[in-house]
Amino acid sequence: MAFHLQPKWQPLVGQLVIVKLLDKEIRRGVVDAVTDDDQILWLDSDGADPRRLFHRADGFKVWVDYRWETDRSSLCPDFQHAAAP
Question: Could you tell me the pTM of the whole model?
Answer without folding.
Answer: 0.74
